[in-house]
Amino acid sequence: MNKSALQTARYAYKPKLPECLSGSVEDIDVEFGSPTEAISDREELREIFKITYGKPLAAFKKGKNEKIKRELKVGVILSGGQAPGGHNVIAGLFDGLKKGNPNSTLYGFEGGPSGLIENKTIVLTQEIVDEYRNTGGFDIIGSGRTKIETQEQFTSSLETVKKLGLYAVVVIGGDDSNTNAALLAEYFLSNGSSTQVIGCPKTIDGDLKNEYIETSFGFDTACKTYSELIGNLCRDTNSAKKYWHFIKLMGRSASHIALECALQTQPNICLISEEIEAKNLSLDKIIEQICSSIVKRAENGDNFGVILIPEGLVEFIPEIKKLIEELNDTIADEEESFSSLTNFADQLQWFAGRLSDISYGILKTLPVEIAQQFLMDRDPHGNVQVSRIETDKLLVGMTEKKLRIMKEKKQYKGKFSALTHFFGYEGRCAFPSNFDADYCYSLGYSAFALIASGLTGYLSSVRNLTAPADKWSAGGVPLTMMMDLEHRHGAKKPVIKKALVELDSKPFKTFEEKREIWAEKTCFLVPGSIQYFGPPEVCDTSTVTLRLEHGL
After folding, report:
1. Residue 205 a catalytic site member
2. Which is deepest, 47, 220, 252, 504, by most CB within 10 Å?
3. pTM above 0.85, yes or no
């Protein structure tokens, strides 16, 4: 593999561990709290997870643990979209296994969960793991989005772990992937297998979090990467003084990325999907909010600015959400009939009488290129692919229209010129920040300790993350503790509940207190690139969101 100078330097970085995981492995003991309960739907979940439901919280402490030195065979899966730091989770897991017993083996399942189903593996050696330490991406074994949900898939997974003689499987993924981990843990036990299953919390979206999972890995690096780019645009537009930058940011269901980037860069406007839904704001109201800032800034001679837009915004705008729901249901009911139409005009006519009058009216009035995006190929669940809808361009078009009307009415005298951007894939495989490098390595090492202690159905947990790494605590959270039931494909399914932006949280309240000033005045911050070398207060700092949540 060709190496850049930075990559070579990053190989030399030694991730920091919590004190409870450092030193000799036989000194890592585990203590348990009280039995836990799910978020809701407890009776139903107790019935689904007859063996693994209600496990206690686990915390590591210094003590004696002789069984941690057993020879182990473990498999690891990278599941779902990439997130910076995944390689370090594997490195931490590998180092823990080898420190516990040099004869232990780590298998990498290639291509995500399908590798477990199809028994596609490689043995991860010291040489292979060393090639990927402290680097971004999931290319060490690849990832995939296959869901293990059919009886055949569960049976094949069980056959794989039996053939390989695995003591455990580690699933590195988000909420859906770790829901799979919980179901696998239950399935293995109920079918006579002692193979343990441990999860690790991954997603740049930041929506896998709770009291015991303070943040998902990759969120820190992705937000710092996007904030560097946003800060660059802030500096550029404040120099040229002639463009409004509409920036769509990754984050399908939650606006954590947009909120964190707003706190780091102080744009003129940042839309928060959860607030729009809570206040029942229409698309017209959103455009009014944008135009209000543009008009006020124009009166100050500032015909430029920056607007942040969460990727999943359209699903939170009431009338658009209703349109999407109707489109999904209508196409699902008559998929063959709809699929035969290739011309947009024919597709639009097809929906007449099938959609409600309001939804059909919205679909007709949307710009043609945007309306077509609502009718593109569906995702694997039969839903609109929201990430492919150019919400940024939709908002620009509607803003231009509104400003023209205002200009005709002598309500606006400025100049408006807009540029659109989508920052998404740029952040998923960035070199992990020192925070994510340390956090991910600790999560992997903690996963090893959970396995060596004989636990299954747990999510690796590292907490107290605003303190120096040696003061972090580590342990495990029962996966069933984070679950409720949701309607999917016409049935109730167990899922790990997504954590959306809470409007009474300190991060949102901090943003809310300042945004009126930002909307009118130029208050941009330019955070610059991620720093890997230098004082800890520059290089090891966590996100603004995490610091605010900890009262810092």
Report:
1. yes
2. 220
3. yes
